[in-house]
Amino acid sequence: MDFLHYDFSNLFSLANMLAIVFGTVVGLIVGALPGLGATVAVVLLLPLTYTMSPLASILLLIAAYQGAEYGGSISSIILGIPGTPAAVATVIDGNAMAKKDMAGKALGYSLASSTFGGLFGGLVLLFLAVPLARLAVRFSDPEFFLIGIAGLIAVAALSSQSKIKSTISVVLGLMVGTIGLDTFTGSLRFTFGRLELLEGVGMIALLTGMFAFSEVFSMISSSLNTRYSSGAKKLTTGLTWKEFRAVLPSTAVGALIGSVVGLFPGMGAGPASWFAYIQAKKISKNPIPFGEGNPDGIAGPESANNATVGGAMVPLLALGIPGSPSTAIILGAFIIHGIQPGPNLFTNSAELAQGLFYGFLLTTVAMYLAGRLVTNMFARALTISNTYLIPIVLTLSIVGIFAANGLFFDLWLALGVGVMSFFIRKLHYSLPSFILAFILSPIIEESFRRSMLLSDGSFSIFVTRPYALTIIVVIVLFLGLTLYGLRKRRPPVAE
Amino acid sequence: MTTKMADKIVLAVFVLVGLGYLFQSYTIAQGNPGAGFGPIQFPVFLGVALIVLCAVEFISSLNRSDGDVLLNIPNGGKLALTILLTAVLFGLWWYLRSFYVVACLFFFALVMIYQTDRTLRSTAIAAITAFIFTAALYVIFGLAFSVRLS
Q1: B84 shares a domain with B126
Q2: Residue B79: its chain A contacts at CB < 8 A?
């Protein structure tokens, strides 16, 4: 319980508070804009972090991540267009309730349950990250290799419409991760004589090209002349205690589902909100049918998508493995400040880790206050025409890439990646699978090679260590369950 | 072009990438002779895996009868212009070593491309917005956070 002894004056500094408030506001606005999600919000704020302290930087990005997850529900409820993929489930009952002239009430349910989910996720982070890191300290290279493999399998199995295409995305991500100087032998791999590739492909350029550029290109292609209107609805997000108590069971279940789902790489808020919606349907006692404005249909998924934020931060902080594209960018911010997340974070940078735990809870509170006070204003942000929004996002993304390393090479790389991502997304290749594999690639290869050195080239090292064996059992169980699920879903063949 | 045709082209490109990657791996191997698990085994495994997976996807796509739709890219011209203008921005920025002026012109040009009705009023609004936006970038990144953009 070392984390309970913390000097809170480090957290409550003006810089940290401003970072939380600014991150929340930007996250809410970007999350509310249809098409732009938490990843874009975090990417856009990244260049601001270079000159900030590590704690303020990470809190800024976490606040944006949290804010965007709630912000997604604003456009879902008011316009019937999900701002983020995670807010798709919210559209069904949220928009139905808004159409009954109860948009403010629907937003109230969304805000209250998002806050509950965010706080629950924060507590999961607070109580799980340290024990997991303590366990991870006992891990060595064979275990880290197997954890990396487990992450890849989870990503490939759970994302994309096609499992083979998702696996191809994973392999491509691993391949790009091998570019650069081989730390074991000092040989240059796939750098084509470019000094800019000596330390590998720039993560910020890759992420921004893949998620922000390709998103902008999609907006040009699909909704260039769209101008949304939020109308003149009353959007005060008030909720009585009685109303909140009625949705508390589905909110609590949503929070639990979101936290657990967030722990697994590749799953993210989208599936979590659907799982929570299905559970809310099962446990709801509200007589209003689902799909016609049932409050439980808003509370469950909204609680779940915010709870995934805390869940996704657990493997990032404890193991150094990001669970989602947004946490991959947050990992980038750690690396910019010369900090490597993982089990040693809690000993080498204990103060930062503790600050993040409590700061995470503060970001949730900030999200609630911002939602209560200025949802009306955020709803108006929806009326920004894409004619102006696209140049804003594109220019900010370009600034972000250049600010990272000051390399023009990174700009061209991001443009190329953005164009390619735009096309391969249309063919259902998985960008999250690619990016998580790219990040896991050095962990997997280096752990494997070190394991082989330790065991004199014998593969028995992976089955003779208890922790490694346990991870193998978990992998086999997961693979078995996935194959069983695929077989069960296959339609019967006609005789 | 249909999605099936595009799929085949992309798979062919990936196979070429895999082959090129394998070729490069062997070039690296020649410069690093020695025993043990070296710098190329993992890349070789990945190169082979990519080619095999592409082959599996290609074969399974032959048996798939559904999902072949026309690959439509609305506003393709505007999209191509955006990509071209972004490349021009990078080139001019590198050549002039000045970000803010070029970014202001870039922003203005994009808005003008996207606008459907270009009147004097809308042009003026676009110009003013581009100027205000670039000035805000300078204040936030250049002054407040001392981020060097040139």
Answers
A1: yes
A2: 217, 220-221
One-character DSSP codes across A191-223: -TT-GGGTT-S-HHHHHIIIIIIHHHHHHHHHH
**DSSP per position, A320-362:** S--SSHHHHHHHHHHHHTT---STTHHHHTHHHHHHHHHHHHH
Residue of B83, B112, B113, B146 to mutate, interface with A, max A Cβ within 10 Å: B83
Find, in chain A, the residue whose alpha carbon is nearest to that of B107: A391
Residue B130 domain boundaries? 76-144
Q: Is residue B26 part of a domain?
A: yes
Exposure string over B51-72, b if 16+ CB within 10 A, otherwise e: bebbeebeeebeeeeeeeeeee
The percent of residues above 90 in pLDDT, for chain A, comes to 21
pLDDT, one tens digit per residue, over B84-123 is 999 999 999 999 988 999 999 999 999 999 998 889 999 9
Residues B48 and B103 in one domain: no
| CA angle, A204 then A59 then A22, to 5° | 90
Domain boundary among the residues B63, B84, B107 is at: B63
Displacement of CA A212 from its chain's centroid (Å): 14
By Cβ distance, the residue of B36, B47, B79 closest to A220 is B79
Low-confidence ranges of chain A (pLDDT < 70): 1-4, 34-35, 81-85, 157-161, 226-237, 265-268, 378-383, 486, 488-495
Q: Is residue B150 part of a domain?
A: no
Number of domains in chain B: 2
Q: Which tokens is A291 given?
A: 């799909």
Assigned token pair, B99: 């970000």
Residues B92 and B36 in one domain: no
Same domain for B53 and B100, yes or no, is: no
Inter-chain touch A168–B53, beta carbons under 8 Å: yes
Do the Cβ atoms of B114 and A220 come within 8 Å?
A: yes
Distance CA A449, CA A437 (A): 17
Residue B140: is its pLDDT beyond 90? no
B35 pLDDT band (50/70/90 cuts)? very low
Question: Is there a contact between B90 and A411 if contact means CB atoms under 8 Å apart?
Answer: yes
- Which of A166, A185, A213, A410 is most worth mutating to test chain B (most B CB atoms within 10 A of its CB)? A185
* Cα A242 from chain centroid (whole Å): 32
Q: What is the pLDDT of residue A211?
A: 81
Indicate whether B92 belongs to any domain: yes
The answer to whether residues A64 and A45 touch, using CB atoms and an 8 Å cutoff, is yes
Nearest residue to B38 via CA among A186, A439, A145: A186
What are the CB-based long-range contacts (under 8 Å, 24+) for B146-150?
B146/A51, B147/A47, B147/A50, B147/A51, B147/A399, B147/A403, B148/A406, B149/A399, B149/A402, B149/A403, B149/B99, B149/B100, B150/B93, B150/B97, B150/B98, B150/B99
Using pLDDT thresholds of 50, 70 and 90, give the confidence band for residue B33.
low
Query: Cβ distance A235 to A374 under 8 Å?
Result: no
User: Does one domain contain both B58 and B87?
Assistant: no
B86 shares a domain with B54: no
